[in-house]
Amino acid sequence: MSAENRRILIIDDERPILLTLAALLGRHSYEPEVAANASTGMRLLEAKKPALVLLDLQLPDADGLHMLEQIKASHPDTQVIILTAHDSLSNAIESIKRGAYHFISKPYAPEELLSLVEKALEKQELLRETIELRETAQRLKDDPSAIEEIARRELGLIRPGEKVIIVRDVPPAKP
Hints:
about 180 residues; alpha/beta; Rossmann fold; 5-stranded parallel β-sheet; 7 strands; elongated
């Protein structure tokens, strides 16, 4: 997992929650950033580009569900886990519909939260890799000669100065 993929933004108006989560995540080699309100959270989201946001539904300056929509609109690849003391099935369903990775009620078990964090970050990494593979496949489709560059630069299969012969299986022409 890359270093930038370990950045986690915690947005919660309860200082003890912020401090506890930051300490827990820091002990597990994550890079937590904390915000006690929505406006600070959005500024940190833009500045730090975290892979994951832990978001409280009840903030003093914004509705958590509305903020979730803003996060997903501006950073669609960023995973969001909703944290709330106001546990309800309708909130959980609405959060997932609006793009949250998961919904967890306070108080939460640290092991459960850490497991969700790891799974959310794995999902984010898989999405990033999928996008890169699709872009590479499209480059090859658009320019088959790009395979030499990819083999050399991205895969490290060809050393500089080595000659390359590319053999392609060409389907027979249709009658």
